[in-house]
Amino acid sequence: MINEIVPREVELFAKENGAPMILTSAGDRNVGFFRKNGYLLRGELKDVPKGHDCYELYKMIENLPRSKLALSTAWRNGIAGKISKN
Predict the structure, then answer these.
(1) Burial of 19 (0-12, 13-18, 19+ CB in 10 A)
(2) Which residues does 74 contact at the CB level (< 8 Å), separation at least 6?
(3) 51 Rama sector, left if φ>0, alpha if ψ -120 to 50, beta otherwise
(4) CA atoms within a 13 Å half-sphere pointing along the CA-CB vector of 3
(5) Alpha helices of the chain — where are they, by DSSP H?
(6) pTM tops 0.85, yes or no
(7) Rounded mean pLDDT of 2-23?
(8) CATH of 2-75, one of 3.40.630.30, 3.60.15.10, 3.40.50.2300, 1.10.8.60
(9) Which tens digits make up the pLDDT trace of 26-57?
(10) What is the mean pLDDT of residues 57-81?
(11) Looking at per-residue confidence, does 16 or 83 come out higher?
């Protein structure tokens, strides 16, 4: 359930704040979660940290001016509070 709520809340936060995209990074263990939620691969670092790969992913927010970026720090800026109240 939380794996459905978090992506939806992050996208809503980005839309409400006029962000044209969401940009995040993920390790090889959780990159599939972001891909499943519509994120596209932007970059990849092999063997960083040693024995693992690191990815940068993004998701475009539709119908918004391209003036801001919402980083994955949206979670720390209020998303957790919204989820815990539901």
Answers:
(1) buried
(2) 10, 13, 14, 22
(3) left
(4) 7
(5) 2-16, 31-36, 79-85
(6) no
(7) 88
(8) 3.40.630.30
(9) 999 999 999 999 999 999 999 988 999 999 99
(10) 58
(11) 16
